[in-house]
Amino acid sequence: MIRALLFYLALSTFMVKAADLSVAAYPSIQEALNANPNHMLFVPAGDYVITEKIRIRGERSGLFGPGRIIQQSADQPIIEIENATGAEIRDLTLTRPEGKMESRNEGVLAIKCRDLVLDNVRVIDNRSPAAAITVRESKDTRISRCLVRNYMRVSIDDRTQSKDWGYAFNCTDGTGISVDYSTGTLIEGNRVIEDNFVPTPEVKAKYKLGDYVKKNAVKGGIMNQQAWDSNYTDAWQQGSGIVVNAPEVNDLTRVIGNHIENAAQGLDIHADHVIVSQNIITNAFIGMKAMHGSRNVLITGNQFVRNSLWAIGLMPGAAAHPATEDKPENADGGSIISNNIISDFGYGDAHWIWGDERSPIKFDNGQQPDDPPLADVIITGNVIHSVGKPRYKYAVIIPGGPNAPRGLHFSNNLFHPGTQGVCNGELPE
Predict the structure, then answer these.
(1) Considering the domain boundaries, does residue 277 fall inside one?
(2) pLDDT averaged over the chain?
(3) Which of 189, 184, 152 has the alpha carbon at shortest distance from 171?
């Protein structure tokens, strides 16, 4: 009884304080923030239409409450948090109105923050190649219980400035949550769902997806000649549900208990010391990949459902490199893949693009000849489960050659064979 009374008094005090610091007392949310630096402000229920981004700075600043913020300007993020310590955004809905949902900007953009909290935030219809929630150059961020819904749009992926590629093509693009150049991030219990763009032949034809719109005079260094000559790429689903990016910088990240549905790539990891656990990734053409020098990645206890190209992939990428005079080696490996379930592989919406010549688990060589090979990976306790005839050639693919993956250790897995077996070679024990 006494405990309940104390709780009630504390809650009443909090509610009074929140009421005293409400954005409703000011002409706009931004004016309320400017008048109350270093305070959390309550956003009551209702719609708040803005045409400029909301800027949050300082210490212990932020917004919370049931209100809905509607960004009318396509060339503006909805909320920008920069150089803030202990900032929080809680319980808000952030969106763009009908006819103005397409943008090239973020829903939430956080730059150079410490101890940032984004909790139970809903970012709806922020359809942009930029991520709905972006965190850059930050430390100890927590993104939890957020909903990102309908974040993709038709765009152009322009790789003409890259010496590796050298072309641009029509695509669907968009990312739910992106964490770049950051450390100590927790991404937990979020839902990232795309309902609008589904990879059907009709959608492909309507927007000419995959067709090149520009091409350099000289082929990119890692481009396949046949793909270059065809003026088309199958990889027109771009973006990811969740991205953890910046090889050699991004570190100490936990991606736990998220639900990702209808993404292009479910999880895209380019980072070190990462825990990927208890996530559900369904109907992505790639369930997850870790590459570009991703080291010490623990992939455990996840569900991969209805993926099409692969469910789990580990491989070097262009950002991997051997040791130099001023830099240590950036190599992939020292990782564990354990206790994951891969089911209904090949039954996703993108299956018609990729066909049956695919594999649920893929290890690969690097994109560049000098990329250090993937090395030292334990694969244990995983299940690849197929009901009926499998829609994959092998359960596991391991390439050969001088830079082939090395030090792969398989034990106690249950892999339903593909149409040609469990592995394209002898499975290492």
Answers:
(1) yes
(2) 93
(3) 152
